[in-house]
Write a structure and sequence with these properties.
Layout: E1 2-6, H1 12-19, E2 23-29, H2 32-43, E3 54-56, E4 73-76, H3 99-109, E5 113-119, H4 128-139, H5 151-164, E6 172-180, E7 191-199, E8 213-214, H6 215-223, H7 227-231, H8 244-256, E9 264-265, H9 269-273, H10 282-285, E10 329-331, E11 337-339, H11 342-348, H12 361-370, H13 374-404
Parallel strand pairs: 1-2, 1-4, 2-3, 4-5, 8-9
Antiparallel strand pairs: 5-7, 6-7, 10-11
Helix pairs in contact: 1-13, 4-5
Length: 405
């Protein structure tokens, strides 16, 4: 199935969708370092990106009419800074707001479906009206904002279209949900809003994939069965005590005798990094993992104390001027903190070990902090792909039926 990828970054969303069966006609990204990352892996023949047609530049300058193929999917993660909790919260007033070009791509390409991803902050109360505006624009991309019309006036027109019940013109059935990557097997607590739409003429019913992992299951594996510690060959004497804030929860599990969890346990930092050598060790110096290099300077700040080993990592972040202070750190076994290496960060974002990144540590960590975990992209993408294949099958049956008549 053919796709177009906007705001591709280091390729996390695109590669995950590639594993789901989508082949991009064009991959669009403006950041030099991210494009160098994509080109480096393409030149090396890396399987997931070797056939990508990369356009380096502003998506607003791309000529969508140059794409002749029928497109099954438009996807991308519009820059999140306008809505990020760590940003300036300007939303539509921020020149980096790229949702208008995302809507334009949908309007011009009329894909069978789209997937867009953004930060949790886009759905908070202060952005409620603008988030509704985004959803309605994606629902009716053919209703274009007039030159002399402000966004609230455009919103009002879209609302009238929504309530009219009319079915004419290009339209999409659009839903959004806040997903936590940890609930799908990613070793990181990463909450992101996914917006998914199917073209209305396909008449498809779809919902987001069910969660496969849970925090409760992790607690049970650690503090009831002990399987977690045994898997990592940690003796009873070496095991930490139950964190006080979870002790009551574990006692309740014991009282109810619900030892068999319905979901798999959350994956932890230790799960993700268990076979990587310590970055300052001799083994790391001779190791084949790319960019597994110690980065000095990690410091604890109030509210920023690093990620514990035996829980999913805290959300990896990308600041305007490099890694934000006190972020992207792990709490080492001796209680000290250190920055995650690039390779460790890539593991937490579920990038494969053979994938290389370009740029300084700061630039690379920005790419990783902005990325979509491959595993989560694959799961959502596979569900959308399966639905599109069902739609194509139904369409083919109708055509055969009409021929037979």
């Amino acid at each position: 199935m053919k796709s177009v990828e906007l705001f591709a970054g280091a390729g996390g969303l695109g590669m995950g969708l590639g594993l789901s069966g989508f082949e991009p006609e064009t991959v669009i990204e403006w950041d030099k370092w991210a494009c160098d990352t994509l080109r480096e892996n393409k030149s090396r023949g890396y399987p997931l990106v070797k056939d990508w047609n990369i356009f380096e530049g502003d998506a607003r300058q791309f000529d969508f009419s140059s794409i002749a193929s029928e497109i099954d999917l438009v996807s991308g993660g519009p820059p999140c800074q306008p809505f990020s909790l760590g940003g300036k919260h300007k939303a539509f007033r921020d020149r980096r707001d790229m949702f208008p070009i995302a809507v334009e791509a949908v309007r011009k390409l009329a894909p069978r479906a789209f997937i867009f991803e953004n930060v949790k902050g886009i759905s908070r109360t202060s952005f409620a009206n603008y988030f509704q505006y985004i959803m309605l624009q994606l629902s009716y991309p053919g209703i274009v904002r007039n030159k002399d019309e402000d966004w609230l006036g455009h919103l009002a027109r879209l609302e009238r279209r929504k309530t009219s019940g009319r079915e004419d013109g290009l339209a999409y059935n659009v839903i959004a949900r806040l997903l936590n990557a940890a609930n799908y097997g990613v070793p990181q607590n990463r909450e992101r809003v996914f917006i998914v739409g199917f073209r209305s003429d396909l008449n498809q019913e779809w919902s987001f994939p069910e969660e496969t992992h849970s925090f409760d299951s992790l607690l049970k594996e650690q503090w009831l069965s002990g399987d977690y510690w045994e898997r990592h060959e940690i003796s009873r004497k070496q095991r930490p005590e139950i964190p006080a804030r979870y002790a009551k929860r574990v006692r309740k599990f014991k009282q109810t005798n619900l030892f068999t969890p319905p979901l798999k346990p959350w994956k932890t930092v230790r799960d993700a990094l268990h076979d990587l050598p310590y970055p300052l060790s001799k083994e790391a110096n001779n190791h084949f993992y790319h960019d597994h290099i110690f980065q000095a300077g990690a410091r604890v700040y109030p509210g920023h104390t690093g990620s514990p080993m035996d829980f999913p990592a805290k959300t990896l972040k990308a600041g305007d001027h490099g890694v934000p202070g006190g972020e992207n750190m792990m709490v080492d076994l001796d209680g000290s903190v250190r920055y995650f290496t690039i390779r460790e960060s890539a593991r937490l974002q579920t990038f494969p070990d053979g994938y290389k990144f370009h740029g300084s540590w700061t630039e690379t960590m920005r790419q990783l902090g902005n990325a979509v975990p491959l595993v989560l992209a694959r799961i959502v993408g596979a569900s959308v792909a399966g639905q599109l294949l069902k739609a194509k099958e139904s369409e083919m049956r109708r055509k055969i039926s009409n021929i037979a008549v």
